[in-house]
Amino acid sequence: MTTVFPGLDPANYRPHGLHSSERIWPETNCYVDLWIEVLSAQKLPPEAMLGFTVTQDFEGDQATFFKVPLEDLETLFGIRVTELAIFDRPEGHVLEQIGRGRLCLMELDSFHLPDTRGLTYRQEHGKTTVAINRLDLERRELDYFHNAGFFQLSGEDFNGLFQMNAGPDTLPFLPYTEFAKFPAIYPEEATIRETAWRLLRHHFARRPAENPIRAFAEVFPDQVERVAERDFGFFHKYAFNTLRQFGANFELLASHLTWLNPKAFATAEERALRIAEIAKSTQFQLARAVTRRKFEPLATALDPAAEAWDNLMTKLSVALDGTREAA
Known about the structure:
Elements: H1 30-41, H2 70-77, E1 80-83, H3 90-99, E2 103-109, E3 127-136, E4 141-146, E5 149-154, H4 156-161, E6 177-181, H5 189-204, H6 212-227, H7 232-260, H8 266-292, H9 303-322
Antiparallel strand pairs: 1-6, 2-3, 2-6, 3-4, 4-5
Helix pairs in contact: 2-5, 6-9, 7-8, 8-9
């Protein structure tokens, strides 16, 4: 076996609708985006896995970097994900797992990923997760899932990604790697939907005790003043780990609720989308504030999103109490 999922071609690959350019946040974060596309490539509904988004919190200096719990992937789809020990050349480990029909998720340097052209490609080193579907060592080619799509790289990028030209005194290249084992048969969609209902109830019980957006709003203006003291490139890192994580998280929650039951969750979906919209508009305000060094408007910018969070949780509580898994 030379590929995990045969028949996929980066040249004609079409991303899932959750990555449509018409969405408020077409991309979320590398890990969730990757799983959206991996599940879609298997004709599985990625919306089913998104119940965990109700647990997002504010961690003091950042929003929770939301990631699908691995136990949810196994419960929903029978996909088992665990860490793969890298003790030899990484590409050798990847080839071994591809031969066994397993997908490797590897933290690599976005400096060598051509799909990030205009952002980090050949400009800035950064850690990001890709899932490797095909690796050809002789041709130095790689087909991989990353962010909102499926891509190919080769040649110099391949060499850089796997540090093929590293000197003898270079530290060993041992990237953090997970690998996914796929079942012979996936559950029926009705079973997946019933499981998603149970998981949403499970995660709803684990939601933050206090409003995370209000907690963020209390420190937001002071944080931005400190961000303004840094080079403008730092603004993008800050915005990504705060406003983008909040906004993208709740837009995905809205999609999850629509997929489960658009009628029962209509109002809750509206509130989740309201959070996503406010996070987006506030990101523009943030950029202006940093440029002009005027921070007063940020004091109340997130108030509508905080109010929407309170209302969202109330509506979810009512909807979950009033609906059954079979609804």
